[in-house]
Amino acid sequence: MNAPLNPSFVRSLPPSRADRDHDGGGDGDGDEDTGGDVDIAAPHRHRTIWISDVHLGTAGCKADFLLDFLRWNDSETLYLVGDIIDGWQLKKGWTWRQSHNDVVQKILRKARKGTRVIYVPGNHDEFARGYVEHAFGGIDVVYESTHVTADGRRLLVTHGDLFDGVIRHAKWLAHLGDSLYTFALALNHWVNRARVRMGFPYWSLSQYLKHKVKNAVSFIADYEHALINEARRRGFDGVVCGHIHKAEIRMIDGILYCNDGDWVESLTALVEDQAGRLEIVEWKTMGPRDEIGASAADASALA
């Protein structure tokens, strides 16, 4: 039996919460081994997964969705492409739910079980750049990384903030924009609560506004070309980034541009299969309420 899912990705229906927790042990992420008496489908296996812009520590973080994605997707290598923890927001106020802890524990558990986890910090978690070339809990912290796909393409992996003119030259304006963005996410929370009650799926108001504003569209184009030019200058076949919360894969002037999106609006990841094929996957459906509990089923409406 399968849960009704976004057609861009298919996964098996997870076991009930009681089944998942029946052994009472483990890491506290509710995803422990349950023994041979429960028929649990194996996670989907990728060669590589890239996620970014999770913004743990903020009200807008969709940690429940990310945790669900991580439970049902494994990979040989997992890239954390920046803004995993939102240091900017944590300085203003503390919003750290149990689901945020669970995401951290799940990533650490993957590292312990053999997944190579590479953390490339961004501007919101720039504090982690002070620990570059160190490893914590099996997670390697690096300034940037080079990924070679199964078909031999060399990709530059970077968060992308260093190619954002506002971040580089007017950081105060970036902080102002962050405050306005946080307000838009809060408004998005109430819009989606109403949508859920009317039977409509999750929809991102903030993402819609961002893509309709002419200046924002121009900024995104400039950002993409700055990254493409850097990749070309350094002899890469492409680039993987985050930062702007706009998931996309496309060729720009002969260079592959990949943005893995975010986990506050689009709820997306970039994945590579064993042949080297790259695709964006969305994760907007978590399964029936009676299987995973009301709190997770309503996650699309919770900021």
How big is the Rg? 19 Å
Question: Main sheet, how many strands, which sense, barrel?
Answer: 7 strands, mixed
Low-confidence stretches: 1-27, 32-39, 166-177, 286-303
State the order of secondary-structure elements, H for helix, E for strand.
HEHEHHEEEEEHHHHEEEEEHH
Report the average pLDDT across residues.
76
The CATH architecture name reads 4-Layer Sandwich
What does this structure look like?
This protein starts with 16 loop residues before the first helix and ends in a 6-residue tail after the last helix. The radius of gyration is 19 Å and the shape is globular. The chain has a 7-stranded mixed sheet. A 5-stranded mixed sheet has the order 6-7-8-10-9, covered by helices on one side. It has a single domain, classed as Metallo-dependent phosphatases (Purple Acid Phosphatase, chain A, domain 2), CATH 3.60.21.10. 34% of the residues lie in helices and 19% in strands. It is built from 10 helices and 12 strands. With 303 residues, the protein is α/β, with parallel strands linked by helices. The model is unreliable at 1-27, 32-39, 166-177 and 286-303 (pLDDT under 50). The chain has helices at 17-20, 63-71, 87-92, 98-112, 165-169, 171-197, 205-212, 214-233, 289-292, 294-297; strands spanning 44-51, 73-80, 116-119, 134-136, 139-141, 145-148, 154-157, 238-241, 248-252, 255-259, 268-272, 278-282. The longest helix is centred in the middle third of the chain and has 27 residues, at 171-197.
